[in-house]
Specification:
Layout: H1 3-11, H2 15-29, H3 34-54, H4 62-73
Amino acid sequence: MTVEELKVVARQLSPEERAELASDLLLSLDTLSEAEVEHLWLEEASRRDAEIDAGTARLIPGDQVIADARARLR
């Protein structure tokens, strides 16, 4: 089963079951080694870089991100 197929199946679960699954998956990340975490971050950075290069990422100026975050905290 591919990740995409698993996502389709997971979306068919009840909200409570999805929340439990999400919690379990997040907790499972706590057991990763530092090297595994670093590898995952490098993969994510590469994926995001490729999206920027392909023009599929929406870039937001840092000052706008900070202003939006501050507005949400008010």
